[in-house]
TrEMBL record:
Source taxon at top rank: Eukaryota
Native source species: Polistes dominula (European paper wasp)
Name of the protein in question: Histone deacetylase complex subunit SAP30 homolog isoform X2
Gene that specifies this protein: LOC107070270
Lineage: Eukaryota, Metazoa, Ecdysozoa, Arthropoda, Hexapoda
Pfam families listed in its UniProt record: SAP30_Sin3_bdg (PF13867), zf-SAP30 (PF13866)
Keywords linked to the UniProt accession: DNA-binding, Metal-binding, Zinc, Zinc-finger
Length: 146
C-alpha cells in the first residue's frame, strides 16, 4: 500500500467484523452491518429492557441487521404507546381546555352559517345577540366532534 485507497479495501473490511452485542449472555455471531450501537440506542435498549449488552472485548460498535431490526421495532412500539397515551389524555378534555371565543365579535352572516352548518334548530329571524347566545349549543357540538 502506498497510502492511496480506492475504497474497495474499506468496503471489504467490515465483512470480517461480527456484531458487537451480547444477546442474553451469548455473543452474537452475525456479520456486523453499518449500524452502530450509539448512546441513543443504548438508552432505547435500557428503557425497553432488552437483554442486549455491548461486548467489552469488541473493538467496534457495529451491530448486525437482526439486532438493528429488534431495536427499531422496540422503538416504534414505544412511540405507539406514547401516542396512545397522549391521545387518551387528550380525550379527557374539559371546558377550560377549549379556547374562549367571543361570538359577539362575529358577523351575523357568520353566526347564521355556523347555525346552518351545525344544524342547530331555532326559530327564524334571530338577531345577532340571540344567535351569539347559541354558544352552549356550539360548544357541545365541538366537544362531540373533536
Amino acid at each position: 500500500m502506498n497510502g492511496f485507497s480506492t475504497g474497495e479495501e474499506d468496503s471489504r473490511g467490515a465483512t470480517d467484523q461480527i456484531c458487537c452485542l451480547v444477546d442474553e449472555g451469548e455473543r452474537c455471531s452475525r456479520p456486523a452491518g453499518n449500524a452502530s450501537y450509539s448512546k441513543r440506542i443504548q438508552k432505547t435498549v435500557t428503557q425497553r429492557r432488552l437483554k442486549l449488552n455491548l461486548d467489552q472485548m469488541a473493538r467496534h460498535i457495529y451491530i448486525c441487521d437482526y439486532h438493528k431490526q429488534v431495536i427499531q421495532c422496540a422503538r416504534s412500539k414505544q412511540q405507539q404507546q406514547r401516542r396512545r397515551k397522549d391521545s387518551e389524555e387528550d380525550s379527557g378534555e374539559t371546558d377550560n381546555d377549549l379556547p374562549e371565543v367571543d361570538l359577539f365579535q362575529l358577523q351575523v352572516s357568520t353566526l347564521r352559517r355556523y347555525k346552518r352548518h351545525y344544524k342547530i334548530s331555532t326559530r327564524p329571524g334571530l338577531n345577532k345577540a340571540q344567535l351569539a347566545d347559541l354558544k352552549p349549543m356550539l360548544i357541545n357540538w365541538i366537544k362531540r366532534t373533536v
